[in-house]
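Quick question: what would this complex look like in 3D?
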Amino acid sequence: MSIKENFTLLLTLLLVLSGQAAAAYSQNDQSEKSAQHVKNKAVIKTDLQDKHYRQALYFYFQGEQELALSQVEQSKAKLTHLDSRSALFEAGLQLSAGLLQQAKETLVNFDSLLDTEKRLAKTSDKSAKANELRLIALLSLSNQYLSNGDINQARDTLARIKSVSSTYYQEYHVLNQLAYWPDGNSLLLVNPSEITDESYNASTPYIQLNEALRLIELAQLDAAQYESAIKALTTIKVSKWYQEKRNFWKTLFLDEASFSSRNEKKKMAVLQEQAIQDYAQLLLAQIYISQERYNLAFSELKTFPEQSPYAESALFLFAFASQQVQQYDIAFHLLNLHYKNYPYSQLSWQSAELLAQQVSEQQSLAQGVSVYQSVEHFFLKQQQDLVEFSTSFDKNRNLLDFSASNKPSSINTISQLTQLSKHNSGQTSDYLPQSVWLQQALYDAELASLYQGLTVIDKQTAKLDILLDKTVWLAEIIRLNQQRKADIIAAQTIRAQQGVFAQLKSERDRLAKLLTKQLANKQSTAFANEEESHWLDRIERSNTVLTAIGEKKNTQEYKERLARVTGVLSWQLAEQYPQRSWQRKKQLQQLDSAIAGVTQQKNQVTKISNSQGTLKLSIEKHEQSVQKIKLLLSQFELLREKLSVKIREKVRLYIDEQGVVLAEHLLSTRQGMAKVLERMAKADKRLSLKLAPSAKLITPEKISTIAGGR
Amino acid sequence: MKIYNFFKTVTVLILAVSFNCYSFASETNTSTESSTEIAEQLEQLKSQVLQLNRELFILEEDLLFPASTQIAVFVSVDTGQFFAIDSVEVKINDKDVAGFLYTKRQREALEQGGIQKLYLGNLKIGQYQLTAIFTGVDSEGRMVKRAAEYQFDKDDESLMIELKVVDDTKTYRSQVFVEEWVL
């Protein structure tokens, strides 16, 4: 076999081996990689913290806060730690996902990260910025705790704030007011660093509003406080409120409607301003009524906007004030409107009674009785409605399916919830029932929070189901990997048995030895090609024949011809020798490097087939995940059960209490009606006496006895 | 500030004060405590789901895209002043590997500093050529294309390539730069 053929065979073998090795190598993992490749690159490393942070931002700016949080979590796992900026971002996302405890922990870590970064000589500007961000985060966290009714945690969080700039003073002050309500909290407040009285008053409607509320509470003990409250409310009522600009961090932590358009934001600001003024107006009217200054209350509420969120309360107060200032027509219409428009409100039930009372007093007794009867009928209907609600509520097994609203904007099924959550930045929307009783009950923050808990559980359960599906898919991947590994090991065993690699190496050694020998001998015929070899063979044969003929025949001419051919061929071979010997040496070098590559790959394959660890680890992780999912699913189920029991308890309590209130109203209505009837009877009696004085002898008791007897 | 929340809280307060409105929220202290406990449990479980999600994601990535063969292509946009990105197409060795059509929101997310992971795949060790073609609208509303080519070697470490659409204020055009992340 010529050297050339040997090389061709070797290269084919190498291709086969490298193909198998590369396939196996492609499944290698990071740990193996890091062990074998330690390269010191003299280039600046990419700021991966920044890159990962911006990947999360990509989701955040699309309104996919949940995905953004997942991205941050993955980044944390990959990078092993986050820088202060990412940590703060994580805290913001955790807050928006309702993970308060985690957010608090992240903020604690943020503090230490910040200290570390300060020590690493970061600029003072950056640290000032970081302090601001920390402040925003703490304010937001306190706000969340307050919303959840966790006053102690809110106070703890507020206590961690050491300085507040004027920009955030309003938020800080209001949160303090709420956290320490109804105590005065002026001693607890950090003084605003750059604040003037003028700007303070102009930009703090909520602080003033809360202060006025506090004064109203105090006024129950000390009536003099009313005047201060009136003064404050009058100021709020006429003052303009400008919403300050929001930066990214403020939006992340504090703004609920982060992604609404500019127009919507403007509209919202106008609405909020109007709502503040309405509220102040309502409070003022309430104070006037408490002070029995009905005229003032009447004129205050005369201009109250119809579309205000406080319209119901204002309507009631206005009707009451109208009655007191003897504007009976207005009062009649308002009371009528009120109880018909808000049939489930306790204020409207009072309105109904007031209406009947007013009609009895201001119009005729007969009309009064008629109104009383319709009011009684109204209360009976409400009672019946309440009983029906109670029965259907008790019958329903899944609370979220009960009375689900059919409005397109609302959420009525879990699938809708799940769908919504995919598009709604991880925020869990409130449960919106169709039943007005339940809607009323959900004004209770705790009950609403419990219902929200249910929607969260269903959403998380749906997520876990998806994860469970994923584990099935991962199990299949693991199985394929195992299969692949088994195949690699089997192929390697066969190759080891066949000794292919050893053969390859020995063949190479043989060729190298041959080449060395031939190079040493400097035989020009060593590198002859196929045609030349053929000619050499022919010359050899011819020489043999000529030798055999010897002197028997004249072969001189043949010998000369053969010598000429041999000469030409030798000259050709001699000419080609340096080039061909170089080519062979080069081929041997290529073969060596190819063998080195294959050896490396073979080692990799051996390593993979020997290292069961990586796949084993994956299998373990997979099994743990499956276990965890099952455990979590059962825990969620248990928690859902607990929540349902709690919700049922609370709704039951609500129903009972509404029932009691309705019964009281019914009783009071009947009493009122009885009084009117009595007055009617007296009036009838007076009239009958006038018309027939002899009838005086017959007492009403006797009449009723006679009527009963019949 | 969640002003609206404050507002709701304040509203509840006034209703309680002014109208002696019936409030069943404060009925039982034990009930409130228990609700807080439930809320805490729920939060813990939520946090565990998040953690589990992360672990499974990493496991999936490890299994499907091992670091030794992993290649990821990212897209980022400078400000989008001269080029409003509409779509991108990525080829490796003339073979289409990824394409994406951007919505307004996604484009804005990129323009606000987001980085999109466009493609995650596997490549064997070797030399490759990446071609990226972006289509979009220039500052005058014309449909334009921007392209970039990049030769790279894939070794046994994961490879991250970022396609950056950068605005050039001198030429009033945008260009595509390719950055290979140094890990």
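Answer marked as accepted. Residues 1-41, 193-202, 407-427, 702-710 of chain A have pLDDT under 50 and may be disordered.
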